[in-house]
């Protein structure tokens, strides 16, 4: 049953194109963004598995055509690189990186200036002003928990809750840069 709820579809592509991030974290985001539909397109124009906006994609591949975002390997490379940049910007903080992925960097930067976030990560999620973004972060956190559990990674069950909100940034090799191939 857990295969139906937390599929490993595109697992190989995600493992090859994850930009140095835990592949289960990427699968968690894909599950929420597109439900593994490589042809998904949002009403605002985000495309593919990781729901990349063409403008965002062009930050990583200058000559990108919007239709190329439907190619799973390229979409995951770009999305992973973008997500990695957000995690780096927010020092590995899962909540603020995902909130930025969903609501935009400008909104999260404004929230960080105006909202008294604390070291309590669960409270911080509840302080996110946009209900959609608040739920988005919660759902990806849930997805990530189940993908790790499904793989037999139960070590996180023994960690204090706040420590489960950081995503380690693994070293990237030269073959992880996005390209159109």
Notes on the structure:
It is built from 9 helices and no strands. The protein is mostly helical and 181 residues long. It has one domain: Lysozyme (Orthogonal Bundle), CATH 1.10.530.10. The longest helix has 20 residues. The C terminus is likely disordered.
**Count of discrete domains:** 1
Would you report the number of β strands? 0
Number of helices: 9
Main sheet record = none
In the CATH hierarchy, the architecture is Orthogonal Bundle
CATH domain class: Mainly Alpha
Structural class: mainly alpha
Query: Uncertain runs with pLDDT below 50, 5 residues or more?
Result: 171-181
Radius of gyration: 16 Å
Could you name the CATH topology?
A: Lysozyme
% residues in beta strands: under 5%
Q: Quick check: average pLDDT?
A: 86
Shape: globular
- Measured distance between first and last alpha carbons: 35 Å
Helix content: 40-55%
The secondary-structure element order is: HHHHHHHHH
Question: What key attributes describe this structure?
Answer:
mainly alpha, 9 helices, 50% helix, disordered C terminus, Lysozyme, globular, 181 residues
Provide the fold topology.
Blueprint: H1 2-5, H2 11-16, H3 23-33, H4 54-58, H5 72-89, H6 94-103, H7 105-114, H8 121-126, H9 131-150
Brief characterization of the structure:
By secondary structure, the protein is mostly helical.
């Amino acid at each position: 049953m857990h295969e139906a709820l937390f599929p490993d579809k595109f697992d190989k592509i995600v493992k090859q194109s994850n930009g140095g991030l835990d592949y289960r974290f990427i699968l968690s985001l894909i599950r929420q963004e597109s439900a593994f539909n490589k042809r998904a397109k949002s009403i605002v124009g985000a495309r593919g598995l990781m729901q990349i906006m063409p403008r965002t994609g062009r930050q990583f591949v200058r000559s990108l055509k919007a239709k190329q975002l439907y190619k799973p390997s390229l979409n995951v490379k770009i999305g992973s690189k973008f997500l990695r940049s957000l995690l780096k910007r927010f020092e590995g903080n899962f909540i603020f990186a995902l909130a930025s992925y969903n609501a935009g960097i400008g909104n999260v930067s404004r929230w960080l200036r105006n909202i008294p976030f604390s070291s309590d990560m669960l409270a911080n999620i509840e302080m996110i002003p946009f209900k959609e973004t608040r739920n988005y972060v919660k759902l990806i956190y849930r997805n990530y928990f189940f993908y790790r559990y499904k793989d037999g990674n139960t070590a996180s069950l023994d960690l204090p809750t706040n420590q489960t909100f950081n995503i380690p940034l693994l070293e990237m090799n030269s073959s992880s840069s996005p390209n159109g191939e």
